[in-house]
Write a structure and sequence with these properties.
The complex is a heterodimer of chains A (about 250) and B (about 260).
Chain A lengths: L2 E11 L2 E12 L3 E5 L6 H9 L6 E6 L4 E4 L11 H11 L4 H14 L16 H13 L5 E5 L7 H18 L2 E6 L2 H7 L2 E6 L4 E7 L9 H12 L2 H6 L9
Parallel strand pairs in A: 3-7, 3-8, 5-6, 6-7
Antiparallel strand pairs in A: 1-2, 1-4, 8-9
Helix pairs in contact in A: 2-3, 2-4, 6-7
Chain B lengths: L1 H15 L2 H21 L7 H12 L2 H34 L1 H16 L2 H12 L3 H25 L3 H9 L4 H39 L4 H10 L3 H30 L5
The chains are: A alpha/beta (about 250), B mainly alpha (about 260).
């Protein structure tokens, strides 16, 4: 069984302690999100899990066959058009050019891009389209594990919901596991099987929340109710420092 | 190959867009003619006379030999600075220490007037090809070096990370991630280096050799042969414009389509 297992993970940048004693397991087909305030070490944790940073203390065991990454700002290559950007991961895996282009086109259509956009460069795309391309690029390689670094944070609510729906569909179809970081609690509740609350200074896991209802069945009402509930949680209030911001 | 075809395919459209440029050149020639009518033939020969002289010169074997000599010196000098400037600039860009240490050297090279280099080169190499080539090298090397250095220094860390996350093999990383970025810096540097080389070759020849276009210019000056001098200037400018607008600019447009 494929899984990602993080045990007793600590991390420092110089003398600053970023992460302390992180433990969790992500198993096949599950969506795990890490929620916490900005600057809490979420991105560091994600980079450690994906191998972009080297583990110093503790261990991360990743037995997933393949993985890919979608970033907050898209990170498209500005000198490549939409299709070539999407095909990048396939070409890196040694697939030939025509097959890669074909697959890139198919997934682009699935993600709501239109044929007239295929030859456009990133400078001519809107923020939402860039993020569609970024998702398509990450998913076209059919990863068994997907890392998401706040990919919805710059999108409007309509686009956000559309892309999230796509993501849930594809992850169920292909049985993809997702490790997802976000500061948006509603987003986490809509998507996750399990939510880890990462509290800052140094980053440590303060609490875990689990949701059993399958993602397809979570309607707006479910998300609002659960959000309302979780916002009453003592740890959430402390972690996001909600109590200090009451209006006088 | 496909790329070259694409450039050729777009060339007619590009040339068509050159009417404005041609109009402004014609306007310039008109002002030149006014100057001729005011100051007379000795000071400023008319465009017509200049182009007649030019036409006659281009039919003489001797002038083509001089052009060949100058072209040879300019291409060797520019070729060397292209090679050294690009390679050393890229290396310096990849190492923070090297780029820090190279800065003052570049400042010295850029700050030193080419005319001073010519004097030194004449002392070191005597009168001949080496002096000219050396002067071109020291004048256009720093321009290309800085271009290459800037290109490598400003590589985007986020894109590198993205490339790592998709496990791009090294050759794809170079071709798809690093090269286009570096090229967008180094190519304009090549163009300015080339312009510099072409100017310096004439100056160095005028002072330090007995053949080449620059030397012909010196002869024309000593004989007060203004039409020939102007015809030589037209050759120099004409060839530079040809290289820049007909060869380099279409390449640049195609390569940098993603930018503007």
């Amino acid at each position: 069984m494929e899984k990602l297992e993080v045990k007793n993970l600590n991390h420092h940048f110089g003398f600053t302690e970023i992460l302390r004693d992180i433990n969790f397991t992500l198993s096949k087909g599950k969506i795990l999100s890490i929620v916490g305030p900005s600057g809490g070490g979420k991105t560091t944790l994600l980079h450690l899990c994906s191998g972009l940073l080297d583990v110093e203390e503790g261990s991360i065991t990743n037995t997933f066959d393949s993985s890919s990454f979608a970033f907050q700002e898209g990170r498209l290559l500005p000198w490549k058009n939409v299709i070539d950007n999407i095909a990048l991961g396939l070409l890196a895996k040694g697939k030939n050019k025509s097959i890669s282009t074909q697959k890139a086109k198919e997934i682009a259509l699935k993600f709501g891009l239109e044929e007239e956009d295929f030859l456009k460069f990133p400078k001519d795309l809107s923020g939402g389209m860039k993020q569609r391309v970024s998702f398509a690029r990450a998913l076209v390689v059919k990863p068994s594990l997907l890392f998401l670094d706040e990919p919805f944070s710059a999108l409007d609510i309509g686009l956000k919901k559309e892309l999230q729906t796509h993501l849930i569909e594809i992850s169920k179809e292909e049985n993809i596991s997702i490790l997802f970081i976000t500061h948006d609690i509603m987003e986490a509740i809509r998507l996750s099987d399990e939510i880890l609350l990462l509290k800052a200074d140094p980053g440590h896991i303060a609490k875990k929340f689990s949701y059993a209802l399958t993602q397809e069945k979570r309607d707006d009402r479910f998300v609002y109710e659960e959000s309302a509930k979780i916002l009453q949680d003592k740890d959430i209030i402390e972690t996001f420092e909600l109590n200090t911001l009451e209006l006088k | 190959m496909k790329f070259i075809l694409k450039i050729l395919k777009n060339l007619p459209a590009y040339l068509w867009s050159g009417w404005g440029a041609i109009a402004s050149i014609l306007l310039f020639i008109a002002f030149w003619d006014i100057g001729n009518q005011i100051y007379g033939n000795l000071v400023l020969p008319s465009p017509l006379e200049t182009f007649k002289t030019l036409y006659a010169m281009l039919h003489s074997q001797d002038v083509w030999e001089q052009i060949d000599i100058t072209l040879y010196r300019a291409s060797v000098g520019f070729g060397l600075s292209l090679l050294f400037g690009s390679v050393l600039g890229l290396i310096a860009g990849f190492f923070a220490t090297a780029s820090m240490m190279s800065r003052p050297v570049v400042t010295i090279l850029v700050g030193m007037p080419p005319i001073a280099w010519i004097v030194l080169a004449m002392i070191w190499f005597g009168m001949g090809d080496e002096t000219v080539i050396f002067t071109i090298l020291v004048a256009s090397f720093p321009i290309i070096f800085v271009g290459a250095l800037q290109g490598t220094r400003t590589l985007d860390g986020d894109l590198k990370e993205m490339a790592d996350s998709f496990h791009l093999p090294w050759h794809m990383k170079f071709i798809d991630v690093y090269f286009p970025h570096i090229f967008s810096y180094i190519f304009p540097a090549w163009v300015s280096g080339l312009g510099m080389a072409w100017k310096i070759v004439i100056m160095a020849e005028l002072l330090a050799t007995s053949d080449g276009l620059g030397a012909s210019l010196a002869v024309a000056r000593s004989q007060l042969d203004t039409p020939t001098a102007l015809a030589l200037v037209v050759i120099m400018i004409g060839s530079l414009m040809f290289i820049e607008y007909i060869i380099l600019e279409p390449i640049k447009r195609e390569v940098e389509l993603w930018r503007s």
